[in-house]
């Protein structure tokens, strides 16, 4: 736990610099394009649009208790895809963050443990913009806010803590074993299909044992949590204590392990890169 406490202190001390660098990186990505920020949102909008057309036009998933009818399924799938797209992009960028930025940031008075957080924070603007569009669509389709929406903050914090804990592991391993990133990237491509983004894991097409295993996936916990916050048949997060305990247990183990290997190897990052 000593390593975790040290990492948290470094992250808090570097927070303002993290925000400024993330903001600068966002402004530079499409600075030379005529359409500018349009391209920042074009990819997720296209993917969401394709999935909605492919699956929602069938009338939705009749076995999904959280998404009755076509409108219910459209809102269900868009909430899941916006969340998954943010997590997937943040996971990929943060995994390669130290390898790509350590040479520049090591010359600054900046904690290396905060580098992965830059990639996560950098995706906030796109995530909240896309989420705002989804919420506007939900209100247009007569989905009304409720008291359950207050727990959005809990799932958002859970998502960010999980992403950072995972990034400490993946960003360090990517430096130590460069081939790891390619395998990690390939694994995340199937993440949409094993995280309940498109088809509910409670669907009859999944055997009970497989469904139970899929529900242990931290990505599923976050995605399903946002859905159970904003859509039909909402559930308070403390009512599912089993999956909450599994999620926070996995996150804590990754945070402890990630903090340990990061601190152990970070003095060698420059040599390894």
Q: Pick out the low-confidence regions.
A: none
Number of strands: 0
Give the helix proportion (percent range). over 70%
Label the structural class: mainly alpha
**What characteristic shape results from the CA principal axes?**
globular
Percentage of β-strand residues: under 5%
What is the total number of structural domains?
A: 1
Taken in chain order, the helices and strands follow as HHHHHHHHHHHHHH
User: How would you sum up the major sheet?
Assistant: none
Keywords: Cell membrane, Membrane, Transmembrane, Transmembrane helix, Transport
Membrane topology: Multi-pass membrane protein
GO molecular function: ABC-type transporter activity
Domain ABC-2 type transporter transmembrane: 20-231
What report would you give on this structure?
One of its GO terms (molecular function) is ABC-type transporter activity. It is found in: Cell membrane. Keywords: Cell membrane, Membrane, Transmembrane, Transmembrane helix, Transport. With 273 residues, this protein is mainly alpha-helical. It has one domain (2-272). It is 72% helix and 0% strand. It has helices spanning 2-13, 15-29, 38-56, 69-95, 97-105, 115-122, 124-140, 152-176, 179-189, 191-194, 208-214, 218-230, 241-265, 269-272. α3 (38-56) crosses α4 and α4 runs antiparallel to α6. The longest helix has 27 residues, at 69-95. It is globular and about 55 Å long. The mean pLDDT is 83.
